Amino acid sequence: MRSVIMKVALVVAMALGVSLSALPTASATAVAACPDGVCSSKYLNYSGQKQINGYYCGPAATRVALSVRLITVPTQDSLAYSLGTTVNGTDHIGLVTTVLRNYVGGWYESKWIGGSYAAQWQIDLLVADVRLNINNAFPIVANVVGTATDTNGGSHSYSGGHYLTVVGYEQGGNISVIYDPAQGVQYRMETRSLAHWIAGRGYSA
């Protein structure tokens, strides 16, 4: 249902020549957190934990997302079992979505960005998803591949693919605040750049 609503909003926004990221969310939680319905920035409290081996980025990123909503957070090993993670990693974002839904209910959906680059409508949708999810305390787990640059000019490269978690935003969602379990660090990235980084993969939102 959320996908249908977002797609309708996107069509309306395109017809009006307005970026979807400029539209206010209709969430009661978002309105409570942001009196005008649109936060310029928002950050979630989470429990970050560096992945315990080279192929546990999926479990580690999923754990970060769950830490926002659960008092007792599952271990990376437990999540790896649920995700079917092997030495080759976690196969696809759909597995993450299923596990998130099992723990916190039906909010999460898998969103796919095909091709080598994100189209403008996919960038707009990701900006809107970042705002909607963070306003409602549901971090986004993203499956990325290749190289991207953060707002400080730092380069992050994962040729074989990687999972990370969006835990906040700035500039109305145009900047994503990311927790990266590979180094156990937080950094900021233009959401446009994040969308291109996800291209060929997908995200849970």
From TrEMBL:
Organism per entry: Actinokineospora globicatena
Domain called Peptidase C39-like: residue spans: 45-182
SUPFAM superfamilies reported in the protein's UniProt record: Cysteine proteinases
Stored PROSITE patterns: PROKAR_LIPOPROTEIN
InterPro entries: Papain-like_cys_pep_sf, Peptidase_C39-like
Keyword Signal: yes
Superkingdom field: Bacteria
Protein name: Peptidase C39-like domain-containing protein
Coiled-coil regions listed in the entry: none
Record has Coiled coil as a keyword: no
Signal peptide: 1-24
Keywords: Signal
Pfam families assigned: Peptidase_C39_2
